[in-house]
Every structure is written in C-alpha cells, then in structure tokens.
Specification:
Number of helices: 3
Largest sheet: 2 strands, antiparallel
Order of helices and strands: EEHHH
C-alpha cells in the first residue's frame, strides 16, 4: 500500500516547525495495519506522518545513545557524576534534533 508522508525535522509539535519534505513510502500490509491501529486507537497521533516522525526520532535517539555507549566503552572511566553525564547528553540531543 502506498501513501504520502510529510517528514518533519522537529523534535515535537511544540517546537517551531521547520521545512518538511513529501515522501512516498511503500509499506507491507502488516505495517500499514499497525500504523492505522496506532493512529485510530492510541489517540496520541493525528496522522500516520506524526507517528512515523516519532518512530524516526526515537530511532535517532537510540542511535545517539548507542554511539555514546560505544564511545564511553572505548574511552574508559570518567570522573563525571551521573547527573553531569545526563545533562551533557540531553544538551547534545537538543542540538542534534
């Protein structure tokens, strides 16, 4: 099944909207059904586009976390507190989002 999606680069609907591009995506029947159920039943999203953008943001955050973990493992120990590390990570997420 094919449909058009507006891809958004912003972190949430509360942030200032940036330019979006239109994409055409082909989904399996199972993925189409899952998206449709999430939009209709969860009432968190107004459209499939919103849900897909949220999924992409979550994947990007997961990638950033995995990169940080790999870098930390390679670098060894630190003298920073857990709070300092978390604050630094959150700051970088906001810059890259």
């Amino acid at each position: 099944m094919r449909f058009n999606i507006l891809w958004c680069n912003n972190a949430s609907l509360l942030h200032q909207r940036r330019a979006m591009t239109r994409q055409s995506v082909t989904l399996s029947q199972a993925n189409e059904q899952w998206l449709q159920e999430k939009v209709q039943n969860a009432h968190e999203y107004n459209s499939k586009s919103e849900l897909i953008n949220e999924l992409i943001r979550n994947a990007r955050r997961a990638d950033a976390i995995n990169q940080k973990l790999a870098a930390a493992e390679a670098a060894g120990f630190t003298d920073k507190s857990a709070e300092q590390i978390l604050a630094e990570f959150k700051k970088k997420l906001l810059i890259n989002d």
